[in-house]
Amino acid sequence: MNYWLMKSEPDIFGIDDLRERPRQTEPWDGVRNYQARNMLRDQMRRGDHAFFYHSNCKEPGIVGIMEIVREGYPDDSAWDPKSPHFDPKSTPLQPRWYKVDVRYQLKLRRCITLQELKRHPELAALPLLKRGNRLSIMPVTPDQWRRILILE
DNA sequence: GCCAACGTTGGC
DNA sequence: GCCAACGTTGGC
Q: Within 7 Å: CB of A132 and strand C?
């Protein structure tokens, strides 16, 4: 099983929004970065687990866990002119962007903040903590996954 | 193919 | 709201 960390701005779509969705499931769409796209399309597998990370907010950090329930398929928001993620270069015949479906699994008892993660030298290799990293989806090793969870 | 300009991300 | 860091665009 693979592990991941996926960022979302809670003001737009937070963990509570996911939990309140029908079947607690939602397509993770709108990703417009090629590196992240490749992970969505090529590497994520059904049953993989992912941290839900709240970004660009008062208390950035990991707030919960979700599961990948559908593997990469074309992100149709790219060919919707009304979507904020519209990309005219992506078409149904030649989709450029992909999404997966995620399902809510649990909320951590507390937010494990970015500030706290930075204090742990054993997590220094987390892409999240690398200088200038702006990827909205990134891999987490099984060891990192375990070390983060015991912080809770 | 270089690289300056521009837009975006996201912590602070 | 600031701004560092990075990705993308497009002229040449």
A: yes
